[in-house]
Structure formats: structure tokens, C-alpha cells
Amino acid sequence: MANEPDLCSTHCDLWHNIDKLQKEIIIYERIHVLSNENKEQVAISVKTESSLRYRNDVLRKLEDNIERIIERLQQNKAPAVAFDSRTSWQNVSFSADVGLKLDKDKSVSELRFDSINSTTRFALMLSLMSECYKLVQSNTFSTKRDIYYRDPQLFGSQSVVDELADNIACMLSVPRHHLHLLATSKGCLAGDLSFIEMDGNCVDCSTTTTGILVPSHVEGLTNIRSEAKFVLIVEKDATFQKLLDDGLLKRIKNCIIITGKGFPDINTRMMVRKLWDCFHIPIFGLVDADPHGIEILCVYKFGSKSYSFDSHNLTVPSIRWLGVLPSDIKHLQIRKESLIPLTKADMDKAGELIKRPYYKQIPTWMKEIQILLTSGYKAEIQTLTAISNNFLTDVYIPNKIQHGGWI
Fold first, then answer.
1. Catalytic entry in 149, 359, 377, 396
2. Is 149 a catalytic residue?
3. Full-model pTM
């Protein structure tokens, strides 16, 4: 890997493994779609429902919940709302086609008007449900931040609005954006990609030198175009910026790079899924060779516990791990002085990952975790600069792509 590839003379070789992988992934995805027993989730995942249909569905579900509250009042019972708990791994199972799934009615959280511990949250949830109903009915959108600032004394903090919005989406079994509540994005995009935003703004990600902010309304994007051969997810913004500064997009023109700037927000995860749905090209992850980097890549691939009720809109199970692999550290002969000793938090996180519902699906990834634990050291992506300043852009990524160095 130490020798820099001549991309001009080996252009066909560069894309050979990418094209082969793309065909394998498409065949794999078709098999799972055809054999999937949950036809409703397949329909949702391929976005066959019209806007009007989902809006009517959300309105009906909100009305049903309010009717149940009224019925309890008529029966002289305390009003309450209930939703599946999103806080325990015991409530989450694994499906190869969508990733993590929230098991219905296994463990339920309840907000009751007659409970001193939940009276306030119950009232706030009804207030937010009312706001969502108005937004969906009028087919308008609002950010969660705007909702909070309409009455900051009522909600107390932005995090309260965030949690309530997610609980309402979970209760109704709908994606959060179907409530017409949007969140400000933190992720960035660059590369061979263009699209039109909901407000008619035309965006060309190939012209940026610092990255384009991921749109806050990913589902509203239209006229999405790209000739990219693959998507590269980058864990950190600093690495994303370095790849741009070092000219990765000039070196490998037919690609899209995206970063969630650490643990990804929902919009970034939706954007990765959107790119997969639109183009069905391979998606690779570039993360730190440590348990936290691996967890972040698993979130893109399989989903998260708290959003397991919406995994079919947020995950891409076909994602591959490009680097930095713990086994790369030895192969590249990186000096120990450039590595970082694993902390107790790292060890605990690694132990937790091995217990996740999807661990049996990624044996090669789990083998890399064992290599990490055995060595006792971790490596950040920036560690590769110990070899040379441009090693990541000029050698590591091109060689990985040319020779199929992903798992």
C-alpha cells in the first residue's frame, strides 16, 4: 500500500472492484426485498406512498389517539398516552434487510395525567401533537427549534421538544419528518451530486470547497443527479475538510463524500439512505480504528436503538467498512508512538458492541474489534499522517478502492 497508484494508467482497474461490488449488492438487495415478509415496510422503504396518503395517515393516527383520550375521560379514567420504549436494547431485534427493529408492545412507556411524575410531559405532548396536526393538515413544515421558541417557557428546553417529537413519531409508527417537524442539519456533502431543494434552490455539490450542508428536508429533494461510482462516509469533519483540501475529488472525480461530524444526525442518515435509494452504488465508511468509530459506522449500517422504529428510512445494511481497519495498523507498520492506548471507556464500548443484536451479521468486523482489543491500542484517521501528510488522500483511499480493501 505504500506505493502511490497511477490512476491515469489504471483507471479501469480502479473501478473494477467497485462495479463488481455494486452488482453483488444489487442482487443481494433484490433477494431480500423479494423474500421480505413485511410488505408494508418494503412499500415505505421504496417510497411508493404519495404525500397525500401519508398526510391522511398521520392525521388519522393523531385523531385516533385524541379520541382514546376523550373516551377515557368519558369513562372517568385519567387520560394517558403510551408509546413503545426506545431506551432498552431488550426491546430491539435485528432484521437483515432493515437493521435494528423496535419490537412492538414489548415494553411500553406511558405518560399519565394523574401521575405527578408525568403530568407536565403529558400536557406538553398533547400540545406538540396539536402543533403537528396543524402542520400536516396545512401541508406546511416547521423546525423543532421554531416550535421551541414559540413558547420557550412552556417547553423549558430544546431537548424536551426533541424527545417529545421522537416519542410522538414512535407512538404513531411514522418517520419524524411525516409530522412535518424538521431539524437543522449538521452534516456536510461534497462531490458529484446535484439536486433541487423543496424551495426550488438548485444545489451543485461539485462546486464546493468546504462542503454543502445536508438539507433539512431530505425527503423534499427532487431532480437528484450523479455519475458517482461510490459514496464515502467520513466520520469526522476535520478529515472531511482535509480530503477536500488535499484534492480527493480531483483525484477520484466520480464519488460523493459525506460526513455527520461525529455521531450522525437524522438528516445525514436520511441523506445516506436517499443516495442509496436513488443510485444503488456502493457506500463505504471511513472511521477511526476504535470502538466509537465502529459504533458510528454501525449506526449508518444498522440503525440506532432510539430510532429503531424508523430504521427502514435511515439504514443501509450494504455499507462496507473501508477503513481505518485495526488490521491496517499492523500492515502499515504504524509506530506505537503514533497510536493511543485503549481506555476503559473504549473497552466497555467494545464489549457492548459484541453484545449488539447484529454482531453475528458482521463476523469480519467483529474480528477487527478483537484485533483492536488484543493490541491494546487505537488509531484515529489522522494517525495516517504519521506516514506522510497526504498519505490518506494520495495512497490509502485510492489503493483501498483499487484493490477492494474493504470488509
1. 149
2. yes
3. 0.86
